Amino acid sequence: MDRWLKDFADQFRRTKIRNRPYRNAAVSFRRCAQDDFEARARLARAVGLNTFLFPADRIPGCDLLTDSGTTTMTMDQWSQLLLGDESYGSNEGYFAFKNQIVETFGPAWENRDRFVENTFIFHQGRAAEHGMFKVLAGLIDARRAKDRFLIPSNGHFDTTQANIEDNGLEARNLFSPELRRHDLKARFKGDMDVRALRALLDDPAMRRRIPLVYLTITNNTGGGQPVSLSNIRAVRRLTTRHGIPLFLDACRFAENAWFIRHHEPGMAQRTVPEVVRLVFDQVDGFHISLKKDGLANIGGALVVKEKSLFTERFPKFRSLLSDHQILVEGHPTYGGLAGRDLKGIVEGLKTVVREDYLTHRIHQVQRFGARIQELCGNKKVIMSPVGGHAVYLDIDEFFARTRLKDSDLPGIALTGLLLIAGHRLCELGVYAFGHREQGREIPPNPRVNYVRAAVPRLTYEDQDLFALAEVIAGLYRQRDSLPGVTVTHGQDLRLRHFKSRFRFKSERS
Ligand SMILES: *Cc1c(COP(=O)(O)O)cnc(C)c1O
Prior knowledge:
Layout: H1 3-13, H2 37-46, H3 75-82, H4 92-105, E1 119-122, H5 125-140, E2 150-153, H6 158-166, E3 170-173, H7 194-202, H8 204-207, E4 213-216, H9 229-241, E5 246-249, H10 253-263, H11 272-281, E6 285-289, E7 300-304, H12 309-313, H13 317-328, H14 339-351, H15 355-376, E8 390-394, H16 395-398, H17 410-420, E9 426-428, E10 435-437, E11 440-442, E12 450-454, H18 462-477, E13 485-489, E14 501-504
Parallel strand pairs: 2-3, 4-5, 5-6
Antiparallel strand pairs: 1-7, 6-7, 8-12, 9-12, 10-11, 13-14
């Protein structure tokens, strides 16, 4: 090689800013301007500082309320939508979806039994959870059990927990002890506490109460932190020894696989699709919200491995689930989705395991987190290391040594202030997870107090996220003079963070 070409190549490889692995194929202009500060302040007040109720088209900045269903679809997905087959029974998308399940998760997920379905389509993840736990609870007669049945997990998502509890079972979180430590080297804080699981399973009285164990990848309730393959295997060994089935809540399976490939010892030579199969080899079934790593705006599924501990233990489950699905979603071959949705999801499942996509996606979330830390001059203001889909602001740290107490709901105050600046985040802390008992506030136990910035897939550029980081840093500098909030409506309600209204303590009602 010529000397100049070699120098040029060296130079080139050292460039720090990499281009995105895609380019925009369509854009949507904002209807409102960055400068409408006073208008947003009035509007925020009118909706009682409830972020869910603030009109989306009045947000000129980053709408990071959730990464669920907010994906920007690819041109390939849009083209598949046009090719949707809207037949009532056995549309093309149904077969394509079942084939893609086998393609993505491995041959063990094939439906060989011609008479019993193994792939159940739902309109979103929680509908799959609802079917899962309703049918399971019926099979084990959960409501009449003397001691409540129990579903252990590394961290149940809030809708999973609600569906478990609604059916008379108990949801128990066995968070990794590393989760709460500020340790930058701990790469898999989403792991299940295997010692805690062993303690449960070694006790015969406890073990009888456990029909199923769950792992959520990545661990959304635990800061979006990844779960290691070695942890999944350890949980599998324990559950197999006691004949207990293991399921995944697989919403972010591709992001989780990327973390395993890049951070777990011995995995560097594997591709993401290989890692996905290694993970799914370990389990008996999974449910998934396709609004996350399905790269789609709607969809969910529950898939059962035909030859597994689960089908051995619950042979009637699948046919009962089909009945449930027909009652609430529609024929099992479309399950509450249009035929075109299924085609878009199939294309999304192909894209989501691309190395270039995932690297860009996860690095972008990490750059956003690093920017907040840098501008605030405090590394502890966010949960570190940053997980796959979101940056979690640590509210206890953010407002440490200020006059604001839990009763001032500083997390809610922060999301209200950010709305006025044109950005939408979500409180997941003492208000969302706490509750009221006999007029007293009970904070979540174990304590969690975060404001989450969930980054939609393929939607924002770094510049958008950095603009938000700057606003957050400005509020951090001003933290000693920021107001708390009072609840004006809904403090006693169930799922209250969706419904409550608040006002800043400096304002008259
Ligand atoms: C989003 C989510 C769900 C629920 O899925 P929806 O499609 O929103 O109903 C369940 N579990 C986890 C981990 C999630 O992130």
